[in-house]
Amino acid sequence: MSETKYDLMILGAGPAGITAALYGQRLGLKTIVFGDIPGGSSYMIEHLANFPGLMEGTSGTQFGTMAFQQAQKEGANFTLTRLESLNRNDNIFIGVDVDGQEHTALSAIAATGRVPKRLAVSNANLKGVHFCSICDGPLYRGKNATLAVVGSDNTAAQHALTLARTADKVLLICRSNTHKMDAVHKDQIEQQNNITLMTNTEVSGYSGQEFVESIEVAEKDKGRQDLAVDGIFLAIGWRPNISALKLEVQKTAEGYLETNEKLMTSVSGLFAAGDVRNTDMWQVLTACADGARAAKYAAEYLEKLTQP
Ligand SMILES: Cc1cc2nc3c(=O)[nH]c(=O)nc-3n(C[C@H](O)[C@H](O)[C@H](O)COP(=O)(O)OP(=O)(O)OC[C@H]3O[C@@H](n4cnc5c(N)ncnc54)[C@H](O)[C@@H]3O)c2cc1C
Fold it and tell me: How many A from CA of 275 to the centre of ligand 1?
């Protein structure tokens, strides 16, 4: 067991976790951070073009590295390893890392993010498969692109509508006939003349050399066909990373952590920040904002905890 008891234990070294570490240290909290990839999911961002101030389209990797170095300079202790489990006993959070080492802290922030679900199809790892139309749609601007959106709910509809502004053609491919999207989205889709809605259609494979060039689809009662596409946007759901949380905590049906207005979860002293939280925007900027706020409220919590 580690000798040091920390004020704040952070799970996740993505934008939310790193910002929480930066703010935590600056608020005078002794902070330990778990996470094997400095920058978290942001390493997948080719050009972080929607973060104010980063004019040259800094890559997510550059952003993550700079933020990591900044928090490290403030004194945050980055373990560069993952936490296997987090429990709580008598107001003390107990984390066990992947090497079996135990660490303790008086407060904790879950900033573990989420991962997109992928299709289990042939050539699933080709380049040109995306998950965020706001982020990656602009890559196809001015390229007369045909893009496929796979999914049937409001998120898929929103991706299709966003992409229809810059692509020549958008194929919205829904596996079922009964759409999970609401009437407003359905109307908007039908009015957009460069979106083709394909129902009862399942994607069974991708083809291409390095990048996706076509997809194989199977339409119920009509057989298979290949459709040429320049990119694919998957909207088949995300999975929040919560497997390390071994304590009883309130979650949404999908597993996102519920928080109050001070970002505290249903467990006293455990805060949540960024994509793992039940939120309405999953971006670097909002994750950073969450991280800063969670650290502030963790400091407030600790002040009350240690008051006589
Ligand atoms: C392909 C792609 C492109 C994107 N493009 C953009 C964009 O252009 N602009 C934008 O603003 N946003 C973009 N996003 C979204 C952005 O990356 C996320 O919103 C942001 O990274 C969320 O930050 P986070 O810190 O909450 O989570 P994450 O960045 O996901 O970081 C959480 C980290 O915690 C780790 N972790 C999980 N469990 C544990 C554990 N038990 N112990 C330790 N670590 C753990 C995870 O592996 C992960 O590395 C994109 C996302 C993707 C996938």
Answer: 7
